[in-house]
Amino acid sequence: MSRVPDAATPRWLLVPASLGLAFVGVPLIALLVRLPWRDLPGLLAGTGARDALWLSLRTCLASTLLSLILGVPLAVLLSRLTGRRAAVVRTVSVLPMVLPPVVAGLVLLITLGRRGLIGQYLSVFGIDIGFTTTAVVLAQTFVSMPYLVVTVESALRATDHDLEVVAATLGAGPSTVLRRVTLPLVLPALVGGTTVAFARALGEFGATLTFAGSLQGTTRTLPLEIYLQRETDTNEALALSVVLIAVASVLMVLPSLLGRRSR
Amino acid sequence: MSTATRPAPGVSVRARVAARGCDLRLDVPPGHTLAVIGPNGAGKSTLLGLVSGELRPDEGEIRAGGRTLADASTFLTAPHRRVGYLAQRGLLLPHLDVLDNVAFGPRARGAGRRQARERALAELGEVDAAELAHRRPRELSGGQAQRVALARALATDPDIVLLDEPMAALDVASAAAMRTLLARRLRGRTTLLVSHDPLDLWTLAEDVAVVEHGRVVASGPRDEVLGAPPTPFAAELAGVNRIEGIVLDAGLLRAGEHEIVGVDDEADPPRPGHRALALFEPAAVSIHPERPGGSPRNVWPAEVSRLQPHGPLVRVRLRLADGQHLGADVTPRAVAALGLAEGQPVFAVVKAAQVRLVAEPEPAGPRAG
């Protein structure tokens, strides 16, 4: 037996679809072709590269953690709001997704920078956030947290509220319901949202450069290092790029692998 | 294994929920199962929500035994009410296996993991589901899931059990098994059961409350309430024909242009000039294409409004000229012989001796006290 090809898929669709795939795929292949594979270990062992890798890893872990701590509660509350209030809160919490990163960096600077709205008072206590590793983490969190919030919120809205009602009649208070019912129900979205947020933090460039600058070992993350090396040492920039792509690919596959195991 | 040490409490509800247009007044005697019947949207779910703690009354009070669950100054939330809830669907938690689903309640109420699982296993045994303990909810059939959900609801020793059409989503065989199980496990527990199935009324309930338009229009012992059904809906569930009329004389009622001849009820005889009900079985009604003559019997012109299967028979719904309905149970052969179809004019015939005439029950108000 062989199935008749889906009548709802016109054949001409194949042409633009293939072009679309090639448009995304060919540049990636070009990178692999162009990459000086033999020099790769040496290129990645340079201090600039090592510092950038290590800094990116640390800051992305920190910002992802911060996104979880702040973003999940925000998603839970957001999923329970209705009407105009929900619209307002959602718009505010999602705005960084559509904001140009350089604008994100700018608003962080005028808020938390040395002379910023809040930063000026922090300076009094000797706390200066601008152009430190903390600034990198905050910039990454600012742009990546909305991805987690949006993913988890839409999953929460799709869950069966009656399960929470039943859990309450069984004696579970609101915190127990959240921990043992609500969050486990949206676990796939939680994992998915977290990886997307991590990946977005890893690629953060504009906001970091604007708010945190580019100091080696302190604020110069992988994307910044790649941009810097691009003009002087193309090979090093390519080597670091392939590392970013590899990490991003693993992050993309991870949730579905975890999902399959728990099934 | 039931270790219920507290005696079953009675439940009393006096509650107004303005947003749903409900003003519900109701009592459930301790240890009784009360069936709540009524059309969709009448307020049955609101009633369960008020007792479970999902809804807060705008006015009134809800009490269970000596405890106030809700009044003007108190409101116990669901986790503090000691209520067991079983819905149409099992609503098992998909990320936990069967054993942990049943152990969820005891755990949430402070039992240790091992103690909770022991209790869960015992409850699963009570519903013949011990062998399902390590399955995931999605691996269960509808009937199995509902048995597990019952075990889960009872594992917390609830004071009050709330059942919201627990058999409605099951196939016939599973529903029958579940009904038997409920009869066994609910004995002596104070229970509110919402159901549309007459069989549930007769096998599970001692008391019946009829809810319509946000009010409890009648409640009390099952045989009393269904013996003189307060609404056409209740009559249909009870499986009897119910025609309202005005008493003309002993044994004689007028309903619109029809006269109904019957036998006055001895316990609750109708009084001339007052409203009364004529009650008779659908099996006592025969259908004729022409007006028959002869012995003292009721002959009413009517119109066929609906035909539906009723066991091996066909229940023919007939509409009288004044808009009231009655049902007649006839064989499929008779339906074919008479050529019955919707809209067809016929004559409904009932022997006077088969018709019981009772005074129309007073609408249930708040009971004194």
Characterization of the model:
The complex is a heterodimer of chains A (263) and B (369). By secondary structure, chain A is an all-alpha fold. Chain A has one domain: MetI-like fold. Helices cover 78% and strands 0% of the residues of chain A. The mean pLDDT of chain A is 91. Chain B is an alpha+beta fold. Chain B has 2 domains: 217 residues, Rossmann fold; 120 residues, OB fold (Dihydrolipoamide Acetyltransferase, E2P) (Beta Barrel). Chain B is 24% helix and 34% strand. In chain B, strands 6-7-8-3-9-10 form a 6-stranded mixed beta sheet, with helices on both faces. In chain B, helix 2 packs parallel to helix 4 and helix 3 crosses helix 4. Classes of the chains: A mainly alpha (263), B alpha+beta (369). At the A-B interface, helix 8 and helix 9 of A face strand 6 and helix 2 of B.
CATH architecture of chain A: Orthogonal Bundle
How many structural units, i.e. domains of chain A? 1
Helices and strands of chain B, in N-to-C order? EEEHEEEHHHEHEHEEHHEEEEEEEEEHEE
How much β-strand is present in the residues of chain A? under 5%
CATH homology group of the largest domain in chain B: P-loop containing nucleotide triphosphate hydrolases
CATH T-level fold name of chain A = MetI-like fold
Number of helices of chain A: 13
Number of strands of chain A: 0
Radius of gyration of chain A: 22 Å
Strand content of chain B: 25-35%
| Overall structural domain count of chain B | 2
Stretches with pLDDT under 50, minimum 5 residues of chain B: 365-369
Q: How much is the average pLDDT of chain B?
A: 90
Query: Any low-confidence stretches of chain A, pLDDT <50, length ≥5?
Result: none
Query: Largest contact between protein chains?
Result: A-B, 18 and 24 residues
CATH topology of the largest domain in chain B: Rossmann fold
Look at the helices and sheets of chain A and give the structural class. Answer: mainly alpha
